[in-house]
Amino acid sequence: MKPQLTNTAKEALEKQQYRIVGDHTAVKTCHWTKSMIRGKLGCYKLTFYGIMSNQCLQMSPSISCANRCSFCWRDYKSPVSKEWKWSVDDPKKIIDESILAHHKLLVGFKGNEKANKSVYQSSNTVKHVALSLTGEPIIYPKLNKLLDLFNKQNISTFLVTNAQYPDQIRDLKPVTQLYISLDAPNKELLKTIDNPLFDDYWDRLLQSLEYLAKKNQRTTIRLTVIKGINDMNLEKYAELINKGKPDFIEVKAYMFVGASTKRLKWENMPEHKDVVSYSKKLNTLLEDYEIVSEHIPSRVIMLARKEFKINNKWHTWIDFPKYHNLVNSKKPFSALEYSKETPKKWSGIEQSSKKESEDEMSIVE
Fold first, then answer.
1. What one-character DSSP code corresponds to residue 59?
2. Burial of 287 (0-12, 13-18, 19+ CB in 10 A)
3. 34-58: burial string, b at 16+ Cβ within 10 Å, e else
4. CB-based burial of residue 131 (10 Å sphere; 0-12 exposed, 13-18 middle, 19+ buried)?
5. Is the full-model pTM beyond 0.85?
6. CB 194 within 8 A of CB 67
7. What's the pLDDT tens digit per position in 281-318?
8. Per CATH, is 7-311 categorized as 3.60.70.12?
9. Strands 128-131 and 156-161
10. Where are the domains of the chain?
11. Which of 14, 34, 159, 245 has the fewest Cβ atoms within 10 Å of its own Cβ atom?
């Protein structure tokens, strides 16, 4: 069977510093991985959940997607499809070659005077994988086997899906943290923003939220706020969030970068203070949640379910060794079982007037 990418599309992605593994996997170094190796900021997943950005691999086992979201910073060179119709690479090959490609992308830091040598050395051991680079990772036919292998290698998994494949969400094996993107509060607006291929896209979203609510491991709903477009109808957002019952909510600003600049305007990018205000208003409609933390450079606020506040201290960070022990035991376990206390310096929010510089913006999350 044919690969997902044409040679022209592959060449275009490689010019953008992607590395293509096999027939359908893409790898690219995250901005925050490089930032941390330079001795600067880590990504918001460090602030919120305790991930070390320098040890995180960013990849996707499928470049194809069933949506063409207006706010996506990726270009439209990748294929669109509602179902898998390509060759299927072996999961072990995907992991081994993705890690190899990741290390090759970072090798320039080895002799870089601006790099923190110990942090770079630590980056040689991948401990986390963000399955959220490009495309829709959940449609890779051997995803559960891929997750099993990551778990066995003690590599945490953060998987992002656009909620168009509810059956795959239902059948998904344990993921360290599972994300659903919630891009609009109603059917009409979702059609405009996400440009879905499925005619029953709204029903698929609702079914995905129902399955999300039944997951035992950590779950997150992410809202990407596009100023003047989807930053309204908070009551409907709250209704959908309560349907999915996520452990965490991330309210993040749309960033005016990449290919999205051809479809949206600079004015559609909220400032951090806008995201803070929006999150506070949303929180008044969500009885089971509280605002926990922020990451100003990424313009993102995190809310968590109140049960993660134990003895008046938040426990949103992940105990990764505990997670690996639990998942590899093959016994049922819950999100709280592998949560640990959030360091005090990363709890709470301040409505900062700090100017987010362009090189600090999160354009890969």
1. E
2. exposed
3. bbbbbeebbbbbbbbbbbbbbbbbb
4. buried
5. yes
6. yes
7. 999 999 999 999 999 999 999 999 999 999 999 999 99
8. no
9. parallel
10. 7-311
11. 14
